[in-house]
Amino acid sequence: MTHPRTAELLDIALEAARRAGVLLRDGRPADLGVAAIKSSPIDVVTEMDIAAEKLITDYISEHRPDDGLLGEEGASTEGTTGVRWVIDPLDGTVNYLYGLPSWAVSIAAEKDGETIVGVVEAPMRGETYQAIRGEGAYVNGQRACCRPAPAFEQALIGTGFGYLTERRIAQAAVLNGLLPRVRDIRRGGSAAIDLCDVGCGRLNGYYERGLNPWDLAAGALFAQEAGALIGGRPGEAASTELAVAAPSGLFEPLQELLDELGAWHD
Ligand code: IPD
Ligand code: CA
Ligand code: CA
């Protein structure tokens, strides 16, 4: 049976993500522009990223005032309960800016450093992805499951690119080595959705260098609970250096090849 605290955290994550999703979907100004740039001129934030993070952190703080918070747009509090919320209020900002549908709200709850609840809300797909550690992954209430590992050359692999030119040069070189060896590559524009797509069997695997905790936390738990393995370089945990997600049988050779290709460094 689900621990009552875990059930409470899931309910809060679901409702905060639902509300932020409605705000982002229905409140997107027709003339939406860039509010600020971050690490580079193509790493942008809109007024809607900021408004969605405020909505989410206000909602969580109202219900769990003593928990810690880590949000991409600046939320950062320690908390005293051992629970920390890891929030990407809008994952796929560039898609959102251009009116492309692949963007999501990503909310995870960690207990003592381990992600125990993950919710990814993708309003333009009409889909909510949710997972509790040890209790499976669900999309709109239906159990989600990875696709069995195909032969390596039949694998459809998602990835993403960072915002810094130096990193992109290195990422392009990795792609050069990987693309001829697989079925194809997808660059969807939302790491959280990419990870959920692995968990739903819509991608065979996914990798990316340079993810932040808010990109990874909820989607990685979903993918894992749907049967994927998650890691970084061989033998290491997923991190900013490298994150790889795929079912066993594909995960190992993908991780090995990415390591050989130097996907973990710029
Ligand atoms: C980005 C997206 C993108 C990934 C980048 C992320 P943002 O997040 O997840 O797919 O390739 O690494 O930074 O900036 O849209 O929240
Ligand atoms: Ca993100
Ligand atoms: Ca974001």
Brief rundown of the structure:
The protein is an alpha+beta fold and 266 residues long. Helix content is 35%, strand content 24%. An eight-stranded mixed beta sheet has the order 4-3-5-6-7-8-9-10, sandwiched between helices. Strands 12-11-13-15-14 form a five-stranded mixed beta sheet, with helices on both faces. It has a two-stranded antiparallel sheet with strand order 1-2.
Keywords for this entry:
266 residues, Fructose-1,6-Bisphosphatase, Chain A, domain 1, D-Maltodextrin-Binding Protein, domain 2, eight-stranded mixed sheet, five-stranded mixed sheet, 7 helices, 15 strands, globular, binds D-MYO-inositol-1-phosphate, binds calcium ion
The unique ligands bound to this protein are:
D-MYO-inositol-1-phosphate, calcium ion
Biggest pleated sheet: 8 strands, mixed
User: What is the CATH homology-level superfamily of the largest domain?
Assistant: Fructose-1,6-Bisphosphatase, subunit A, domain 1
Lateral arrangement of strands in the main beta sheet: 4-3-5-6-7-8-9-10
Question: β content, as a range?
Answer: 15-25%
Domain count: 2
Strand/helix succession: HEEHEEEHEEEEEEHEHEHEEH
Look at the structure and give the mean pLDDT: 97
Helix content: 25-40%
Radius of gyration: 18 Å
Amino-to-carboxy terminus distance: 45 Å
How many beta strands in the DSSP annotation? Answer: 15
Known CATH architecture of the largest domain: 2-Layer Sandwich
Coarse morphology: globular
Poorly predicted ranges: none
Number of helices: 7
